[in-house]
């Protein structure tokens, strides 16, 4: 790369003499140039910086008259103006760009060693960007190094450091941290994360195969839990910034976190040993050590236990479309792959459309509807807030939340089948039908994915039956089991949120999940009372339609009352770190054509592939 030689002489004096309109024009050029690379500021921040600098210019034109506390925002503003002028390229823009860059550089070095702030870290990122544009890559790398070290000193990579900050400051810190990760850093993070995860899994598999489940030799299983904890923390720390979307981060870390919990389940709760895995058909005694390790690790990733003796109950049936695409009783790979890819393409456009639809809500309106404290607002909530609560909750659970998890599963299934590592029969539908979600129990046990079910029920059964020795069957044992399952799910989501969404408090997440145990107790009691009063008993296939309609209203009401405790903190995060697809189709073709494509593909899916997703 050509290294340009330019003047480094500092201008004798600096006067911020361009109009606010020109500033906004240059800043827009900066935003256009940095789109997809940097996401350091939102529009409201930029407006505040322009207004504040304009007021400062009226009070004191000399930059030395400004306080050190004001410098961080001024430096960032001057750098955005400098980059915008650099991009515009008019004859007078080159000296203007250098003048604003020089002033920003002077201000940044006046007190950056004694007054290190988030704005300073952002300013050095901008200076690096400017230097790359000026073909000064050596200086750019120097500035980028300062920005990275500043982020490290500020603790932006450690979620615990954010707890004393306001919610707005936490959002800024998260956004800045995402932007300080470059491609090489992400590749290194991928390698480190994969190494940590595989180290946990293969070490656990070796212990499972070569140690007994009981007796003195089993002590190593319990000791290894400390090793898993030691490896898990760096795994989370490295994995958290690989994608720049907190939504994708949550799905990625959530899936892999469950694998780690499954390893713990195999070690000390289900206490598998080599003999159990032989009886379960995972491997044979004569198989080699490498193959045994591979198959045991594969079982850890098989969270639903499909095709094993430990398969979860209520495996969803294969869509009826495949009744005509079987050979010798097995699904044909070609039609199966075609259907999976078609559904994935529809889901991709749906997620893209969902994200762009969320951008249509003005920040001021979003602050009113979803601002801090509104998740706990009931009697004092406005009609608009109630509409947002109900519609947003139902849409979130039946739309993007379901689709993005299902998309990840389908993608993995296609890769696995094409690679010959599995067959289509190993990938039954992840989610059930929305028609079955007419009770809270059915919503979680039939409609929603069952990734957590195996290890959570193993844990709850161990506590209730082995430790507490509760009488079985009994209501106490049944509902204690249910409560422990939802409590365990809440704890898992808190662990994920600590590294992804970083909520100010963890209580609302725990309360949200445990509330479903309460809801199940309530609905079971109501159903029991109805059966005793009416004398009627219905099987699942013969539930009256009006019962289901009442049930849907009940489920929607409970979700609307409790889901904001868990979801609203994520809703308040900057939209720039919540994208759902890496490459946007709508950004190219627009919303209206995308809506038409989405509807058209939906109709094709219904008539050509049966419509069961």
UniProtKB/TrEMBL annotation:
All copies of domain Wax synthase, residue ranges: 427-514
Topology versus the membrane: Multi-pass membrane protein
Pfam families documented for this protein: Fungal_trans, MBOAT_2
Residues covered by the Xylanolytic transcriptional activator regulatory domain: 28-172
A GO BP annotation: positive regulation of transcription from RNA polymerase II promoter by galactose
Superkingdom: Eukaryota
Keywords: Membrane, Nucleus, Transcription, Transcription regulation, Transmembrane, Transmembrane helix
Subcellular location: Membrane
An annotated GO cellular component: membrane
CDD domains registered for this protein in UniProt: fungal_TF_MHR (cd12148)
GO molecular function: DNA-binding transcription factor activity, RNA polymerase II-specific; RNA polymerase II cis-regulatory region sequence-specific DNA binding; zinc ion binding
Transmembrane stretches, start-end: 116-133, 186-210, 246-269, 479-496, 508-526, 546-567, 579-609
Record InterPro entries: Fungal_SecMet_Regulators (IPR051127), Wax_synthase_dom (IPR032805), XnlR_reg_dom (IPR007219)
Name by which UniProt lists this protein: Wax synthase domain-containing protein
């Amino acid at each position: 790369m050509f290294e340009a030689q330019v003047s480094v002489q500092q201008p004798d004096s600096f006067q911020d003499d361009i109009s606010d309109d020109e500033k906004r024009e240059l800043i827009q050029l900066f935003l256009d140039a940095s789109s997809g690379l940097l996401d350091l500021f939102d529009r409201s921040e930029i407006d505040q910086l322009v207004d504040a600098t304009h007021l400062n210019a009226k009070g004191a034109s000399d930059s030395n008259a400004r306080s050190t506390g004001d410098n961080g925002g001024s430096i960032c503003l001057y750098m955005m103006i400098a980059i915008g002028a650099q991009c515009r390229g008019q004859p007078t823009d080159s000296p203007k760009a250098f003048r604003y860059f020089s002033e920003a550089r002077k201000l940044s070095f006046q007190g950056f060693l004694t007054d290190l702030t988030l704005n300073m870290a952002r300013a050095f990122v901008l200076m690096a960007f400017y230097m790359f544009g000026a073909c000064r890559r050596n200086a750019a790398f120097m500035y980028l190094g300062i920005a990275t070290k500043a982020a490290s000193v500020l603790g932006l990579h450690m979620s615990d450091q954010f707890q004393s900050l306001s919610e707005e400051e936490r959002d800024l810190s998260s956004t800045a941290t995402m932007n300080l990760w470059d491609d090489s850093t992400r590749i290194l993070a991928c390698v480190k994360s994969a190494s940590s995860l595989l180290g946990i899994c293969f070490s656990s598999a070796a212990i499972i195969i070569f140690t007994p489940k009981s007796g003195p030799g089993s002590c190593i299983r319990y000791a290894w839990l400390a090793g898993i904890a030691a490896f898990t923390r760096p795994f989370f720390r490295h994995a958290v910034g690989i994608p720049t979307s907190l939504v994708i981060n949550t799905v990625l870390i959530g899936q892999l976190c469950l694998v780690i919990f499954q390893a713990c389940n195999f070690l000390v709760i289900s206490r598998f040993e080599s003999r159990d895995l032989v009886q379960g058909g995972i491997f044979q005694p004569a198989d080699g050590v490498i193959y045994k390790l591979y198959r045991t690790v594969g079982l850890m990733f098989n969270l639903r236990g499909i095709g094993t003796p430990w398969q979860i109950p209520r495996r969803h049936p294969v869509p009826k479309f495949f009744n005509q695409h079987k050979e010798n009783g097995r699904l044909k790979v070609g039609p199966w792959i075609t259907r999976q890819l078609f559904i994935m393409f529809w889901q991709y456009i749906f997620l893209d459309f969902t994200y762009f639809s969320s951008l249509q809500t003005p920040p001021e309106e979003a602050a009113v509807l979803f601002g801090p404290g509104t998740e706990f607002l009931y009697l004092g909530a406005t009609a608009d807030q109630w509409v947002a609560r109900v519609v947003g909750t139902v849409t979130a659970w039946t739309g993007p939340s379901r689709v993005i998890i299902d998309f990840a599963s389908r993608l993995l299934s296609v890769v696995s089948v094409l690679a010959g590592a599995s067959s289509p029969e190993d990938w039954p539908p992840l989610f059930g039908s929305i028609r079955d979600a007419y009770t809270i129990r059915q919503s979680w046990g039939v409609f929603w994915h069952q990734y957590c079910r195996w290890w959570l029920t193993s844990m709850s059964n161990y506590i209730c039956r082995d430790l507490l020795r509760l009488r079985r069957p009994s209501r106490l044992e049944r509902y204690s089991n249910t409560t422990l399952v939802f409590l365990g799910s809440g704890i898992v989501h808190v662990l994920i949120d600590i590294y992804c969404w970083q909520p100010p408090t963890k209580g609302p997440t725990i309360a949200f999940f445990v509330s479903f145990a309460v809801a199940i107790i309530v609905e079971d009691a109501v159903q029991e009372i109805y059966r005793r009063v009416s004398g009627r008993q219905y099987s699942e296939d013969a539930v009256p339609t009006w019962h289901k309609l009442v049930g849907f209203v009940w489920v929607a009401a409970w979700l609307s009352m409790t889901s904001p405790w868990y979801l609203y903190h994520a809703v308040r995060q900057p939209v720039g770190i919540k994208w759902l697809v890496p490459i946007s189709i709508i950004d190219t073709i627009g919303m209206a054509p995308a809506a038409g494509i989405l509807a058209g593909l939906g109709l094709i899916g219904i008539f050509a592939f049966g419509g069961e997703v």
